[in-house]
Every structure is written in C-alpha cells, then in structure tokens.
Amino acid sequence: HTHTYTMGSDEQSVAAVPPSSVSLLTNPAKPPPSAVSVKVNEDGTIVSTLPEGITLGDTPYGKGIFTSRDWKKGDVLYTATYGLVPHVPGSVKMSVRQSEAEGGEEVHSCALDFIVHSVLLPEVQKRQLYYFDAFMNHSCDPATFSDNEGDTELGGWYDTVARRNIKAGEQITCDYNLFEWDCADKGIDACGCGAAACRGTVHGLSKYPLSEQLQLLPYARQLIEPFNAANPSLRYIYLDGFDGLALVPAGSSGGEGEGEGKTKPEKGSTAPTPLTAPDDALEFKTVATRAFAKGDVVFTTTSEIISEDQQIVVAFRDGDRVQRVRTLDLVWLSIKRAENRREFYGWNSFSNHSCDPNTKDVLDEELPKGDALQPGVTRKYHSVALRNIAVGEEITCDYTTIDDCLDGTEFECKCGAETCKGIIKG
Question: What is the pLDDT of residue 328?
Fold first, then answer.
C-alpha cells in the first residue's frame, strides 16, 4: 500500500525492469481461490483485475479505489496478492481491468515505481509491490485494514477487511502507518485525508505515541517485531485464534466467565498500571464454536518464556471480530518457572479453572534449564477434550495440573462442580 497521490499521471516513464524482477512479480504461491486475478504479460506488463464491486475513481490526489456496494464492519471486501521486487530503483507498467463479470475492459494503465509504490521489508531488502491496491489512498480514519496475510519467498496474499460500515460510493482507504515502522525513504509531511482525527503527517507507526501504537498494532501485526525491538521494557504479543474456539467477554452466553468461575488472589499480584483503556480490561473466556468429542485435540500451540521485568500487552480478536488490547497481570496469567522467568500460555491463559474441567493441557516439550531459559524461549503443548464438548460450552482446565504452586496464592473456586474443592491452593 503506497502513497498513491502520485498515481494520477499516466505519463511516467517505465524504467527497464531487471530480468530477475519480472519473475518475482508473478506470484506462484497458490493464493486462496478467492484471490483476484493477476498475471504478467510477456512484455512484463502486470495485468491486475479489480474485484467485483470495486472501481477506480478520481480524487484530488490522482486515482483512488471506490466501492459500488455497501459493506458491514468485519466483511472481507476481497482477497488480493502482492509480489516481491528487489530493493532497487525501477518501475513496471500495470494495466488495471474490470472483473470479468463487469466486462473485463481496461480502465487504467500506469507505471508502478518500485520505491514509491511498495513497502520495504528491511530484513530481506525486498519490497512488497501491490497491484490494483496501489491506488488505495491513506486516511487517518481508514475504511479497511489488511488481515489473514500469507507470505512466501516470492509473494503473498491478504484479505482487505472493513474496519467500519462502508457505504456504496465511498472511497476505500487504509492507514499507511500500518505498513511500515519507519517510512525512511518516503512519507507525507502534510496529510490531506480530512479526517476529524487526522494526525497531520504519515511517517510510519514509530512516530506516534505509545498508547496509539498499542491500539493500532492489532491491525499491523507485521510491525510487532520492530515495536518490541524498540521497546525492550514491553512485550507485545498477538494471540492468533484457533478453529473451533472463540474468546468472548465473560458476560456472554456459553458458561461461567472469568470472575464467576474463580476469584483473583489478593496477595502476590504484580499487575502493572495498565497501558490500555478501561474498556480493554474486560474479562474474557474461551468458548467452543464447534463440537468436540472426548479425546479430540482442541488446539495445539506454543507457550513463551517472558521476563518479570517486562510489561506484557496482548492483543486478540474476540468472537465478534473486535480487536482487543489488554495489559496482563503476570501472576494471574502466567506461571513462574525460574527467577525472573515466567511461562505465558497465550490464548489458553484466558481459560478458566474448573474442578471438573472439560480439557487437559499436555506439554509436548521440556523447558531448558538454567541460563538457557531466556525470554523468547517457546515450547509446544496441546489441549485434549476430557469429555464431549458442545457448541457454546466454556473451555475449562484444572489449574493445579499445570501450575503446582500458584505463586503461593489461593483463590475461592466458584466453578459449581459437584467435586468443587472450594479453595484452590498453591
């Protein structure tokens, strides 16, 4: 996604494309069948097809992308692809066509500049070159974000998702700051998006306040690694979901939620002052969105060793596709494994305790010992259904089977099971 106000001119010269670049522009990675069509002609011209319901139109900055139909928040407008090109000056001609259902005619042609119309991947010194999506303009109040990205050595694909309700005729926009940590080789000194919350400039996510970065990172997961490198006192973790499970607010249907099935311990808590807003401190629980039979593997994932010196922030999407950001209480949502070393179990940290649980966690690997147990170390584990689990049922586990000390705390259990122990002690 690029600074597309430069795209209005059709008179740009097309520089000679290095032979290796043309092959990189084709994406052999077999994207999802729903992805819109892209091909490269023998002369190196990219032929990019617009998705149904998506059109090109004029804006004060050149061309822009518009929609001819309404979309609801969370809808996937389309799945598109990108190619990888070398991090060198150059350009390539692109022909943009309507979808076959809408006639398949060419609606625009232009030159894509390798530097201006792409996103730099500094770790590999290559650039992501977008196709018709290169016409998408920036807004500080964007209509869409990119999600479910798939990457290969030669290219990748992504979903364009409605971040809010979008009306027919509206311009489809994105936030350029969500694609680059630091727009070192390009930027916008005076943003003209006109949004009420316009930030004034576009120079990458690194240029904005920490509180704003935390809220935007769920929409820019490829920037979590540079964020963590720039903020050593923090550890930002995005929790990918699992097929058949959802995180939902504790007050939702589907079983007892956090605060109902247990009570937080009063002593020993090292909860930091939350960096996130009060609404983001809501309690959540895990529920099944499909049935599991006894013995089924409910999920397979990894845990991560974190340092007690760091403040941990997690982001995840709840069952309503709402992006949530939450500061962790280290004692309550991780397990002490050594001095200044705790194990965080990711998504499963939100599963509540029950004295008659419906799942059991099975550790597939041993943690390293001594100095080898450093932050960032991971280990695989999986969860197995102990009985049949119905759709909508809350996923629970027995805390004492995986954490035999509970940091010296105890809590009153309210799971309601006939075998409830009442007080759970470490």
Answer: 74
